Amino acid sequence: MDNTTHDLAGNTVWRMGFGAMQLPGPGVFGPPRDRDTAVAVLRRAVAAGVNHIDTAQFYGPDVANDLIHDALHPYPEDLVLVSKVGATRDATGSWLPAQRPEELRAGVHANLKSLGLESVHVVNLRRHPGSVVPLDEQLDAMIELREEGLIGGIGLSSVTLDEYRLARSRTEIACVQNAFNLADRSGQDVLDATRDDGVAYVPFFPLGSAFNAENPVLGAASVTGAARRLGVTPAQVALAWLVHLAPNVLLIPGTSSPSHLEENLAAAEVILDQAALDEIG
Question: Which CATH number is 16-280's, of 3.30.300.130, 3.30.450.20, 3.20.20.100, 1.10.3720.10?
Answer without folding.
Answer: 3.20.20.100
